[in-house]
């Protein structure tokens, strides 16, 4: 077993009981630019949640340049391009990853998938709501930046988790993403995750930099959700095409990711999907009709 600590297993059992009769949490994982470790966060967060007893579905929403499957060494025969073309159903392209996480794989190098119209994007979201799948988390690994699909899928989420690193372009682009989502698309609350920092102090300072600017110019609420350290174990796991929380469970970054997963378990269930995406939340609730708010 990847995690040896019996305390973690006891904690997972307690979380299973807490999770009973709860609706699904939908979390979009975003970044203003590429190269900040967003997809690694999405993949390892899904595995960490599964290690705690959750049933996450990881949706690779970088539809034309997906690489969730690559990070995990998986070779799906079909992907979401086959759903869009009508060749396969959503259920038929689902694949399993470590700790039995379920994954909706994106295409790679398929130009038409990177330029889907809003209706096709909405149809994908509706298809996820129609999945015959038992899940309690939907993690949406968004493309980097502020393309149309990022905006559509962000509106379908209850929480938007913005990953950024301590470099000027990352901070500037993360702010731009938050500004567009808040001013034009009704997203007002954001979780912020500093990644690849030297220590917690650097992570806190990075959050304060973006929060100070946002407080001055935007009508939003930002909340820091910890920090992830720069850790050679993560680079080694990427080379091995494994989740770091599974391959190196005691590495500093793995411990931080498990802490993040525990934090997410404690997030209250909210229903803030904006505008026309509200129907998506209704569909997910219909999958768990016994759930109460």
UniProtKB/TrEMBL annotation:
The keyword tRNA processing does not apply. It comes from the Bacteria. GO terms for molecular function: ATP binding; ATP hydrolysis activity. It holds the Pfam family ParA. SUPFAM superfamilies: P-loop containing nucleoside triphosphate hydrolases. Keywords: ATP-binding, Nucleotide-binding. InterPro entries: FlhG, MinD_FleN, P-loop_NTPase, ParA/MinD_ATPase, YlxH/NBP35. Gene3D superfamilies: P-loop containing nucleotide triphosphate hydrolases. The keyword Cytoplasm does not apply. One of its GO terms (cellular component) is cytosol. GO terms for biological process: negative regulation of cell division. This is Cobyrinic acid a,c-diamide synthase. It comes from Acidithiobacillus marinus.
């Amino acid at each position: 077993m990847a995690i040896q600590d019996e305390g973690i297993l006891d904690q997972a059992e307690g979380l299973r009981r807490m999770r009973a009769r709860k609706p699904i949490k939908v979390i979009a994982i975003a970044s203003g630019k590429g190269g900040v470790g967003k997809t690694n966060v999405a993949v390892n967060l899904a595995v960490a949640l599964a290690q705690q007893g959750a049933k996450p579905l990881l949706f690779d929403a970088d539809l034309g340049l997906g690489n969730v499957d690559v990070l995990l060494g998986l070779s799906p025969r079909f992907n979401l391009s086959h759903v869009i073309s009508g060749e396969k159903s959503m259920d038929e392209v689902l694949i399993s990853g470590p700790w039995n996480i379920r994954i909706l794989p994106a295409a790679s190098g398929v130009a038409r998938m990177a330029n889907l119209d809003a209706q096709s994007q909405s149809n994908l979201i509706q298809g996820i709501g129609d999945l015959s799948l038992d899940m309690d988390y939907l993690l949406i690994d968004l493309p980097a930046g502020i393309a149309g699909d990022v905006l559509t899928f962000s509106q379908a989420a209850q929480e938007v988790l913005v990953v950024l690193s301590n470099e000027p372009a990352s901070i500037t682009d993360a702010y731009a993403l938050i500004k567009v989502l808040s001013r034009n698309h009704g997203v007002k609350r954001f979780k912020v995750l500093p990644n690849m920092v030297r220590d917690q102090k650097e992570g806190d300072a990075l959050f304060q930099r973006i929060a100070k600017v946002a407080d001055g110019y935007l009508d939003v609420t930002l909340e820091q959700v910890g920090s992830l350290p720069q850790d050679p174990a993560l680079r080694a796991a990427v080379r091995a095409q494994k989740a770091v929380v599974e391959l190196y469970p005691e590495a500093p970054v793995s411990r931080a990711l498990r802490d993040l997963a525990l934090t997410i378990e404690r997030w209250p269930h909210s229903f803030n999907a904006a505008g026309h995406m509200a129907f998506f939340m209704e569909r997910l609730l219909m999958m768990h009709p016994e759930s109460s708010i």
